[in-house]
Amino acid sequence: MYKIISSLWIYLFMLLIFLSSGIHVGAYLAVNWGRMSTQKFVPSMVVDLLLQNRISGLRIFQPSFNVLDALADTNIGVIITIQARFLQAMKEKKQLDDFIYDRVKQYIDKGVKFRYLYVGNEPFLKSLYKRDRFNNIVHFLNMTRDSLDGFNLRDLKVTTPHFTDVLIKVNKPSEGDFREDIKDEMIEFLDYINKTGGPFVINVFPIYTIYRYGFDADFAFFDNKSKFKIIDGNNTYNNVFTFIYDTLVCALTKVGYGDMEIIIGQIGWPTDGYIGANVENAERFYRGLLKYIARKEGTPLRPNRDISMYLQSLTDENKNELEYGPYQRHWGIYKLDGQPKYKIDFTMQDRDIKPSVAKGIVLLPSRWCVFDGKTDHNETLVLQDYGYACYTSDCSSLGAGATCDRLSFTQKVSYAYNIRYQTANQNIHKCELIGAEISTINPSTPECEFIIEILTAEVVDGGSLINKRY
Ligand SMILES: *[C@@H]1O[C@H](CO)[C@@H](O)[C@H](O)[C@H]1NC(C)=O
Ligand SMILES: *[C@@H]1O[C@H](CO)[C@@H](O)[C@H](O)[C@H]1NC(C)=O
Ligand SMILES: *[C@@H]1O[C@H](CO)[C@@H](O)[C@H](O)[C@H]1NC(C)=O
Ligand SMILES: *[C@@H]1O[C@H](CO)[C@@H](O)[C@H](O)[C@H]1NC(C)=O
Ligand SMILES: *[C@@H]1O[C@H](CO)[C@@H](O)[C@H](O)[C@H]1NC(C)=O
Asked: Would strands 309-311 and 29-33 be described as parallel, antiparallel, or unpaired?
């Protein structure tokens, strides 16, 4: 009996240690949920999905109240972002304090577990750095830190995610370094997050890196099928991920922060909008990635490590920006109708299963807006309406190499007409285009889906503090 009791005490003691170390125990698998889409999953539905699939973390871009409400008392580790535009437009520190109170402090009291607070997003992004730059990142990190400390939230760390383009293009990881034009600011940033205990967050998009480097496509995957390898001294790289990761480790080492914790803020594979962006490759990518994480093998420069990752992404975003190409709208593991697109075992046991379906989604009626294909229409006007329909919706599936690229001209016009009509929740007036008619016959082909929009899933509060993205 004594023995049982003492082992019970040991157990409780261990549990206490486990709990008191909070949620920063080992590595974890989490997902990003961007909501730049015409219709969005209801937050409680997303929480159910995460719990059913045993996904322990979520990064949201808009710190919307309704999303935070749904996350209370769930034990899901949450990352929210304070938008750069809000910070830049801020007139007085009180606005930031109010933000921290309303969207962080209050929710901690309601049982939301925050993992990190992101201050801005990819401030050194090459395409933005010159024209729309977020200056003074450390200043804003420090203000946020100060505000958190003011509410006694010292354990909640601040950081900012970066894209891989903060690194120079190299032939092998040992050449890794930060871009010259941002180096000073990067060092200042590193110094600050090192002092305050935040991780370095890097967003890795293998499909982008393959293209940028002209690598063999197989090198993006983790299944050793690539004939192409990178040899660097005694180290061999079999895939893009370990190559990038160690390039970053070398860059950090060169500026004196070789031990800094690294978290993968976004990683995934899109299913449309680009060559190689398809369901088969996404399944293959995640299968290899999840097995790789489960093996805890780390990388040649940081062997035998857990690496925490935020998969990109929970759902498609048909209003996402297209800076890197149409595939940006097709990161979803789930389609907007709540169906998983492919097999993925979030528990990392490599089971051959599809994740659970998002429950409670209702589709609009089976109606499509299509082009009648008659040849007596004024072709100039048809082209005009085709362009207009795309411009006012999302034709990223019609691009070169995308799933609907091989449709006939008539079908492509139908596709555009339909997506405009669906995006507007089947508003009949949005189908008033040259040669357009409503049809109850599904015009989808085996490759190309003509979607039906879902019923408005939530009353969208915009989420954004300033009316811009996320
Ligand atoms: C951060 O803010 C504090 C005052 O709250 C100031 O003393 C400190 O110098 C600042 N640090 C940086 C790196 O800006
Ligand atoms: C980073 O932080 C640790 C402890 O927090 C400190 O020992 C180390 O010197 C710091 N590194 C640099 C390069 O400042
Ligand atoms: C890939 O090949 C390397 C070297 O041949 C080996 O060490 C590694 O375990 C292999 N990985 C997988 C996932 O098979
Ligand atoms: C490669 O490994 C050999 C044998 O372990 C060692 O002597 C050598 O220093 C290593 N080279 C590098 C560049 O690390
Ligand atoms: C087609 O429409 C355009 C633009 O309205 C017009 O300029 C053109 O004359 C029309 N073509 C025919 C054959 O009617």
From this structure: parallel
For residue 234, the ligand 4 atom closest to its alpha carbon is 1
361: pLDDT strictly greater than 90: no
Which ligand is in closest contact with the Cα of 261?
A: 2
Q: Say if ligand 4 is within 6 A of residue 365 CB.
A: no
What spacing in Å lies between the alpha carbon of 234 and ligand 4's midpoint?
6
Ligand 1 mutation pick, 142, 147, 148, 194, max ligand atoms within 8 A of CB: 142
Could you give the CA distance from residue 408 to residue 260 in angstroms, rounded to a whole number?
Answer: 53
Closest-approaching ligand to the CA atom of 234: 4
182, 124 in Cβ contact below 8 A? yes
Quick check: CB of 234 below 6 Å from ligand 4?
A: yes
Residue 122's nearest CA partner among 189, 67, 213 is: 189
Q: Is the CB of 192 under 6 A from ligand 1?
A: yes
> Is the CB of 138 inside a 6 Å radius of any atom of ligand 1?
yes
Answer for the pair 50, 330: CB distance below 8 angstroms, yes or no: no
> Inter-axis angle of helices 409-423 and 379-391, to 10 degrees?
40
What predicted TM-score, i.e. pTM, was given to this entire model? 0.86
Interatomic CA distance for residues 63 and 71, integer angstroms: 11
State in Å: Cα 468 to ligand 1 middle. 29
Residue pair 246/173 in contact by the 8 Å Cβ criterion: yes
Q: Please give the structure tokens belonging to residue 394.
A: 């999302």
Of all atoms in ligand 3, which is nearest to the CA of residue 295? 13
pLDDT digits (tens, 9 = 90+) for 93-127: 999 999 999 999 999 999 999 999 999 999 998 87
pLDDT digits 0-9 by tens, 321-336: 877 778 888 999 999 8
